[in-house]
Amino acid sequence: MPPEQPQVAFRVEGGRLIARTSVPISPQAAADDRERERGYSHLTAPLRQRGLVCTVEYRLSDYFVHASLPDGSELFISPPQEPPREHPPGYPESWLVTRHRSAEPAVYEVIYDSEPDGPHARDGGDVTKLLAAVDTRLDQLGVPTRPAPKRSAHEIAADAVLHRAGFVPAVESGGERYHRLPSGMTDLDEERLVVTRAFDMLRADGFDVSCHPDLLEHSMPPPWIPEKSLGDRLGYLAKGIEASTHTRDVVANLSEVTAPGDGVLQRVVEVLDTTAEWWDGFGGPADHRYAQRLRSIAENLDSHAAELREIRSHLADRHAVHPGKGRVRENQVTASTPAPPRVRAALASSPTTAQRRAASAPPATTTAVRPAPPARPSSAPGR
Question: Would you say residue 36 lies in a domain?
Fold first, then answer.
């Protein structure tokens, strides 16, 4: 696995089966983080993302997080200090969050208290609830919100696999992204099938995946995975346009998107309309609203498709060499990005030329690869 390739871990948290994607860090960096943050990096990182200066300090019997706020006050996030209690670093049974300012006007407030006799006792050591309360108060105090984290191409690729496997994207209050199973999916056998499908698909794409054996369906055969997704195949159009030197080349690729009836945009409109009609069949008020929203999006997209067809026609009328591109062999298509058959046909100057080019070009049809069964973690004793 390349060092930048993210790792995907399936596990149960708070009674929910989720998938977390993380970029691996070096052992030395992890050791430095543990030493500096004392196990509280899951608290300091979200605070630093909002521009706050944080430290991890020791008081009485345990470590706590200290952050300086823009108004001169200080934020303290602490586990119970007295009496001392044993717990994994950074994961106590409860939390106390306070805000102090000794200078006038003096401030002392309890933002969050999940100790047994506190107002948030039901949340216990839940870090998600803790960060949600802290974020709400920081918003009220005018502390800048955290920017959306930038995700690498590898992380986005893992997101796409989980999306196709049936998972739903979600964001914690601290800004961390993860994927969960649909809330209406309660059958454990079905959950195992979805997790196993995602596990196999990720392994087939070369991702490092971890999962407890009990979460997998070991009798499920490996999935049939297309070599290229539909989105990847459409990427040929963008690559073809990028390599184009003449308007006719761009028009040929763009026509696949804008063609009336069977163009890409028209097919998307058809998918949305069909989904709306299907969803309407549930009959509930919320179902009708979602169906109507889908129809509205389809109508807007149909309108944009008509506008794009007009723009494509203007480009076709232009019929000229791009001034910023060097003149190359007429209608050249790079070997690394073979054009789809209909694009090759549109670029052909005659049927004979089209046949000759189609014969010499690599096959454009999509093949499917059935990967070798991935090494799923075994639940058998002694393995």
Answer: yes
User: SS3 of 129, please?
Assistant: helix
Burial class (CB in 10 A: 0-12, 13-18, 19+), 240: buried
Q: Is 111 within a domain?
A: yes
pLDDT of residue 25: 52
Angle ∠(300,303,307) on CA atoms, nearest 5: 135
Nearest 5°: phi and psi at 107?
Answer: -135, 135
Tell me the pLDDT tens digit for each residue of 235-285: 889 999 999 999 999 999 999 999 988 899 999 999 999 999 999 999 999
Number of domains in the chain: 2
Q: How far is it, in rounded angstroms, from Cα 251 to Cα 232?
A: 20
Q: What local confidence, expressed as pLDDT, does residue 242 receive? A: 92
Nearest to 264 by CA among 304, 294, 228, 314: 304
User: Which amino acid belongs to residue 266?
Assistant: Q
Do 130 and 238 fall into the same domain? no
User: How many Å apart are CA 180 and CA 18, to the nearest integer?
Assistant: 4
- What is the b/e burial string over 97-115, where b = at least 16 CB atoms within 10 angstroms of the residue's CB? bbbeeeeeeebeeebbbbb
Answer yes or no: pTM beyond 0.90: no
The pLDDT of residue 28: 45
